[in-house]
Design goal:
3 domains; 10 strands; Butyryl-CoA Dehydrogenase, subunit A, domain 3; globular; 394 residues; Butyryl-CoA Dehydrogenase, subunit A, domain 2; alpha+beta; 48% helix; 4-stranded mixed beta sheet; 11 helices; Butyryl-Coa Dehydrogenase, subunit A, domain 1
């Protein structure tokens, strides 16, 4: 399979690369070092990226967006993540939920949600699935165990619904203006048959933000608790069919998640390779340049090899995702698992090459290692992802 970017894809790649080099990199390590997790976020960088079209990349042209394909989204994510993985994820999180809007919403809902999103550079999107007692088990839940999975309850109330419960680790929960909440509307059946999505516009009566989580990695990226206390949502804010949140197959949203994380991992690996190569050329150890030492050469070779393998796999899945077929589904899960292994290996080797001075590692190298930890648990664990082989056995 041959991968060549067309002129439009290359243009978006160059926009993202320049933005990452000129704007993101200069704030990345400093934002990461801020102790208060709420204060790590910077609206200015979001506004600057939004003015370039990076916040709205997943919006169709009919609503004023660029409507780029998955391959373009993947290469843009990689370039942004090369500057800062968490900032890249803040942008791509918006594309993810734009895909959901286009997959599930009526034309009236699309207009109601996308028009204000397009018009406001400070409008970011979020989605709420994870709960204190329900995380990755929502992805592959037992079909005969209705007590498993998310428990945020939705009870019909006249021409609307009342939501009660709690979400945690919700992306952009404390800064988003629109959040898509996965709600258990039938607790008597398995989570895949009894869950509905509601769009909740923030701020919202009966919904409050709890703790903002103080994470080791992805510190810029905001994750917080959402607490629902008899919060009422309108019937018109139901996305798709009742009880249909997890039974919907196909569509761009279904193709996006694993590709999103894997493309981000490519950018982090690129940053680690670049950092290690620069350090090896400029530093000495034991009186010899690092670049002349065989152990370092072998480490650099492995970093480059793994990164290029990940890039090729990612571009294959991106290309398959742009096709109409479903063959990408198993490959995307395998890609995510490979990305998890690759990013850990490459970032750890970068830290080893940098070594320690006065007992302290390079702040930038250390940050990449902490960001890479996210891949070990994001979007389900490795065992669940490997179960994707079931797609090939059908």
């Amino acid at each position: 399979m041959e991968f060549r970017l067309n002129e439009e894809q290359r243009a978006w790649q160059m926009i993202a690369r320049k933005f990452a080099e000129d704007e993101i990199r200069k704030i990345s390590v400093a934002r990461d070092a801020i102790e208060d997790p709420r204060a790590t976020f910077d609206w200015e960088i979001i506004r600057k990226g939004s003015e370039l079209g990076l916040r709205t990349l997943g919006v169709p042209k009919v609503w004023g967006g660029p409507e780029v394909d998955f391959t373009t989204q993947a290469v843009v994510m990689a370039e942004l993540a090369r500057g800062d993985s968490a900032i890249a994820k803040t942008f791509s999180q918006c594309w993810k939920w734009c895909h959901l809007i286009m997959d599930r919403c009526t034309p009236e809902q699309q207009e109601r949600y996308l028009k204000p999103f397009i018009a406001d550079h400070a409008f970011v999107l979020g989605g709420g699935i994870t709960e204190p007692n329900a995380g990755s088990d929502n992805r592959l839940p037992p079909l005969d165990a209705p007590k498993t999975g998310l428990r945020l309850s939705g009870v019909a109330d006249g021409d609307g619904w009342r939501l009660n419960g709690e979400k945690c680790f919700i992306a952009n929960a404390n800064i988003a203006k629109l959040i898509f909440v996965f709600t258990r509307t039938n607790p008597e059946v398995a989570v895949r048959q009894g869950t509905t999505i509601f769009a909740v516009q923030m701020p919202h009566e009966g919904v409050r933000v709890g703790k903002v989580f103080n994470k080791d990695g992805w510190r810029f990226y905001q994750n917080a608790e959402l607490i629902f206390e008899n919060a009422r949502v309108a019937q018109s804010d139901m996305m798709g069919k009742l009880h249909g949140a997890m039974s919907h197959h196909g569509g761009k949203n279904a193709k996006f998640a694993e590709l999103e994380y894997s493309a981000n991992a490519v950018g982090v690996c690129d940053a680690a390779v670049e950092m290690a190569m620069r350090h090896a050329r400029s530093e000495t150890r034991g009186g010899r340049p690092l670049a002349d030492q065989q152990t370092v050469q072998l480490q650099l070779s492995e970093m480059n090899m793994v990164t290029e393998a990940l890039r090729s796999f990612m571009l294959r899945v991106a290309t398959e995702s742009d096709d109409e077929g479903d063959e990408h589904f198993a490959h995307s899960h395998f890609l995510m698992n490979f990305a998890t292994e690759a990013i850990q290996r490459v970032c750890n080797l970068n830290q080893v090459i940098h070594g320690y001075a006065d007992g302290r590692a390079s702040a930038a190298a250390d940050k990449l290692v902490r960001d890479a930890i996210i891949w070990t648990h994001i979007a389900g664990d490795a065992v669940q992802k490997m179960k994707a082989v079931s797609f090939l056995l059908k």
